[in-house]
Amino acid sequence: MIKYAAAALLALTALPAAAQPQAEYRALGTEPFWNLTIGARTMRFEAAGRASVSVATPKVIHGFAGEMWQTRRINVNTVHKSCSDGMSDTVYADTVTVKVDGRTYQGCGGGTAAQPETSLIEGAWRIVALSGRPMARGTTPTVTFEGSRIFGNAGCNRFTGSYRFERGRLTAGRLVTTRMACAERARNVQESSILRLLGERLTVSRNRTGKLVLTNAAGRTMTLVRDGR
């Protein structure tokens, strides 16, 4: 009996790597911002502006080009082909297609996909529109995301603070500003709108021209382009 138990234990510990518990697989995309996490028990999809979807993780299907996970609500297809997120210099191991409730999302996954999501917005941006309206003449407001810091110029005054960017949502802490008075009423109104909007919880997406769009719960938007473009 002891021999049989020992043999069974040896067989269990000798299982191939594919039969051992796997680390989470992560993928993401930027049009709109979305995240996918495939764990041992749960597969979870989150996208800006929509409710998250969680299902039990199905058995993985190993294809010639990559892996697939198929459920009634979420289907995932990966291809082992390098992929760029389109907004930073990060290159991921896999090209990923996710279909959720009939809607298709394209993105990247595997390899470096577990790196901080902040890399998608990090850097210097120019604010070019508020709810579709261009900036006041003679002003060039900016915002920069650097590490956990947010700073910039709202048109007359500089501002700085901290921020978090998780699951396609941007939340800034209390912003500290200088106190110069704007000479024109239009600049004052614009600056107040920028600072007020940055103080709210915002969803982040990209429009058809590739510009970054920050949207609050009421639907008001701030449109950004990479500084230097």
The coarse silhouette is elongated
> What is the terminal separation in angstroms?
75 Å
Residue share in helix: 10-25%
Radius of gyration based on Cα positions: 23 Å
Q: What structural class results from the helix and strand content?
A: mainly beta
In the sheet with the most strands, the strands line up as 4-3-2-1-11-10-7-6-5
What is the overall number of helices?
2
Mean pLDDT: 82
Total beta strand runs: 21
Element order: H for helix, E for strand: HEEEEEEEEEEEEEEEEEEHEEE
What summary fits the major beta sheet? 9 strands, antiparallel
Percent strand equals over 45%
Total individual domains: 2
The parts where pLDDT drops under 50 for at least 5 residues are: 1-22
Question: How would you characterize this protein structure?
Answer:
The protein has 229 residues and is mainly β. The protein folds into two domains: 113 residues, no CATH class; 109 residues, Lipocalin (Beta Barrel), CATH 2.40.128.270. It has two helices and 21 strands. The strands form three sheets. Strands 4-3-2-1-11-10-7-6-5 form a nine-stranded antiparallel beta sheet, with no helix packed on it. β2 and β3 form a beta hairpin.
Key features?
about 230 residues; mainly beta; Lipocalin; 2 domains; eight-stranded antiparallel beta barrel; 2 helices; 21 strands; about 10% helix
SSE diagram, text form:
Layout: H1 2-13, E1 25-30, E2 33-38, E3 42-47, E4 50-56, E5 61-62, E6 67-70, E7 74-79, E8 83-84, E9 91-92, E10 94-100, E11 103-109, E12 123-130, E13 133-134, E14 142-146, E15 149-153, E16 158-166, E17 169-172, E18 176-177, H2 185-198, E19 202-206, E20 212-215, E21 221-226
Antiparallel strand pairs: 1-2, 1-11, 2-3, 3-4, 5-6, 6-7, 7-10, 8-9, 10-11, 12-13, 12-14, 12-21, 14-15, 15-16, 16-17, 16-18, 17-19, 19-20, 20-21
